[in-house]
Design a protein that fits this description.
251 residues; alpha+beta; five-stranded antiparallel β-sheet; 8 helices; 5 strands; elongated; CLDN1; membrane; transmembrane
Length: 251
């Protein structure tokens, strides 16, 4: 029969695992990993800048082109999409307006693996390997993290079916690895943003900050580590006490 301590630990670990999975999925699917705040986006989209949206969504838009648009138009960036705030009516014959709307465009799969250049936008400047691999890792690591947690949950279900706590050790190890992946994702994203801003410094009237999607990923990592610790502790301690009790009965 399972001790109440172990049952409680497993329930708490499952709740932490579920919350971290929800947070991780929400962070992947939203566009607020990094936010740019422009003092006057409506003024930045002037008569000379009516084509910002067309340049932003163009297939030929390079990193410098869409980053400049993000700077000028209160942009937000996620793992899968980038968004800017533009006037609803941007025809050449329309007067300047303050009625703004947010439009987004998704990164294609090829965009996730495209090379980053030493000078953004300059294809002749050579490949920046650090930024290239940081960008690719920040795309791959969240899916690895969620995959590990799902596999761990499957092992946990098998453990319940077998009425054994010992497989929970594997669940704990997988959650620990998922936490490392999430922590690596956060580190890669921060490093990538810092390296980008060294190449393309923020204008004086633009402020940048990490958004709530990034914060969800930051919170998800410690939850995964706590769930891993509880799974491993419950499984190992229960196994040890069961062994001692079996030895006592034999004696």
């Amino acid at each position: 029969m399972m001790d109440n301590r172990f049952a409680t630990a497993l329930v708490i670990a499952c709740v932490l695992s579920l919350i971290s999975t929800i947070y991780m999925a929400a962070s992947i699917g939203t566009d607020f990993w990094y936010e740019y705040h422009t003092l006057s986006p409506a003024e930045n989209v002037s008569e000379a800048g009516r084509s910002i949206w067309e340049e932003f969504v163009s297939k030929d838009a390079d990193e410098k082109t869409y980053t400049d648009a993000l700077f000028r138009c209160n942009g937000t960036v996620g793992l899968w999409r980038r968004c800017i705030t533009v006037p609803k009516n941007s025809h050449w014959y329309s007067p300047p307006e303050t009625d703004m709307t947010t439009n987004c465009i998704s990164f294609s799969l090829s965009d996730q693996f495209v090379e980053k250049y030493v000078e953004p936008g300059n294809h002749n400047s050579g490949t920046d390997l650090n930024r290239t691999y940081l960008w690719r890792l920040q795309f791959l690591l969240p899916f690895v993290s969620i995959g590990l947690m799902c596999f761990g949950a499957l092992i946990g279900l098998c453990a319940c079916a077998c009425r054994s706590l010992y497989p929970a050790i594997a669940t704990g190890v997988l959650h620990f690895l998922a936490g490392l992946c999430t922590l690596g994702l956060v580190g890669c994203y921060v490093a990538g943003i810092e390296l980008l801003h060294r190449k393309l410094p923020l204008p004086e009237d633009v402020k940048g900050e990490f958004g709530w999607s990034f914060c969800l990923a930051c919170v998800s990592a410690p939850l995964q580590f706590m769930a891993a610790a509880l799974f491993i502790w419950a499984a190992r301690t229960n196994r040890k006490e069961f062994t001692l009790l079996k030895a006592y009965r034999v004696a």
